[in-house]
Amino acid sequence: QKEVEQDPGPLSVPEGAIVSLNCTYSNSAFQYFMWYRQYSRKGPELLMYTYSSGNKEDGRFTAQVDKSSKYISLFIRDSQPSDSATYLCAMSAVGGGNKLTFGTGTQLKVEL
Amino acid sequence: KAGVTQTPRYLIKTRGQQVTLSCSPISGHRSVSWYQQTPGQGLQFLFEYFSETQRNKGNFPGRFSGRQFSNSRSEMNVSTLELGDSALYLCASSLASSTENEKLFFGSGTQLSVL
C-alpha cells in the first residue's frame, strides 16, 4: 500500500464548476502538506502549502487538512479551462527536509 | 527572477551508458532536490543537497548519484543505464533557511529516454 493515495481520474467538469480533489495518507508523521499543479511537459508548480491541520484559502483555491482522518483536500471554485492540468498532493514529515512523498496525481479537464 | 533551469531538456541514451543532468537553482536558493517522474510510479524523491552535502536520500540504487557545487548548482549522474531509467528527471530548489520542509520550486525537467 502506498503512503499517499490519490484518485488518478481523469476528472472532467464544466467551466464554472467547483472541483474537489482529495488525498489520503497513512504516515502520521506527515506535517507539511502541499498541492502542486502540473501542465503537460512542465514541472510541478506549487499551488498551496499548509503546515499541520486547518484550512487555507488563496483566490479560487482552498486547501483543507484533516490530520485526524489523514485526509487532505483541494477545492477549486469557478473552474476555468486553464485549470486543466494534473494536480498532485505532496507531504513531508518534520525533519524530513525537502523529501516529499507525492500522490500519483489527478488529471483534471475543465470543459467549455 | 529566473526559475530553476535544467539542461538538457531532452536526452536519448542506450543501455549501459551513463548520463549527467544539470540544474541551476533559483538565485539565492541553497537547497537542490532531485525527483524522478514516471507514469507508473509517479514522482519519487532521489536526493537533496545543501551546502555541497547530501542531506537526504531516497530509495534508489547506487547507480544514481549527485553533487552540488559551491554556487549551489547541482548535477545528477546515472551510470549503467537501464531501460527502466527512462523518466522525467526534475530538479527543485528552496531557500533552505532551516532543516524543515520549505516551498519547493521545480524546473521543467530533463526527459531521459533509454533505448
Plain-language structure description:
The complex is a heterodimer of chains A (112) and B (115). Chain A has strands at 4-6, 11-14, 19-25, 30-38, 45-51, 54-58, 61-66, 71-76, 85-93, 101-102, 106-111. Chain A is mainly beta. In chain A, the strands form two sheets. In chain A, strands 2, 4, 5, 9, 10 and 11 form a six-stranded mixed beta sheet that branches. The termini of chain A are far apart. Chain B is an all-beta fold and 115 residues long. Chain B has no helices and eleven strands. In chain B, strands 2, 4, 5, 6, 9, 10 and 11 form a seven-stranded mixed beta sheet that branches. A four-stranded antiparallel beta sheet of chain B has the order 1-3-8-7, with no helix packed on it. Chain A binds chain B through residues 31-32, 34, 36, 41-46, 49, 88, 90, 92, 94-105, and chain B through 4, 31, 33, 35, 42-45, 48, 50, 55-56, 58, 90, 92, 94, 96, 99-109.
Q: SSE order of chain B in H/E notation?
A: EEEEEEEEEEE
Low-confidence stretches of chain B: none
Strand content of chain B: over 45%
Morphology of chain A: globular
How many strands appear in the DSSP assignment of chain B? 11
Largest interface: A-B, 26 and 28 residues
Q: Tell me about the largest β-sheet of chain A.
A: 6 strands, mixed
The amount of beta strand of chain A, in percent, is: over 45%
Count up the helices of chain A. 0
The CA-CA distance between the termini of chain A, in Å, is: 37 Å
Number of strands of chain A: 11
What characterizes the major β-sheet of chain B?
7 strands, mixed
**Mean pLDDT across every amino acid position of chain B:** 93
Helix share, percent of chain A: under 10%
SS-derived structural category of chain A: mainly beta
* Total helical elements of chain B: 0
Q: Decide which structural class fits the backbone of chain B.
A: mainly beta
Distance between the termini of chain B: 37 Å
Q: Which percent range fits the helix content of chain B?
A: under 10%
CA-based gyration radius of chain A: 13 Å
